[in-house]
Amino acid sequence: MSGLAIEVSVAPEYQAAESSEAESRYVFSYTVTVHNQSPHSVQLMARYWKITQGSGDSQEVRGKGVVGQQPLIGPGQRFRYTSRAILQTPVGVMEGAYTLLNTYSQRAFEVPIAPFRLAVPCQLH
Hints:
Elements: E1 6-14, E2 26-36, E3 42-53, E4 58-64, E5 72-73, E6 78-87, E7 91-102, E8 107-119
């Protein structure tokens, strides 16, 4: 257990202008906020995402940092970024984890990211 209080929240949004139902291309942006509620600085070192399509097919994405950065987040600070996911179905789910480094103890730890839904909004006629 890391003992560090890190809160991760995600706000997904459907990007209709970039999507095409005819091509089974559904683009979603998602804005992630990482709030460091601990007394020590942390550095976001790596990410892991599992993206599950409405069909049940899933893919895993791993990489260093986020959006080309490995941000240092001080005590009480927030780091926010926006990224994208492209699905082949109008509904999907993403979940994952960040690997963070406690800069005080030099110990790495994982923070899970709860599943969140990607869905094309219903069109009411």
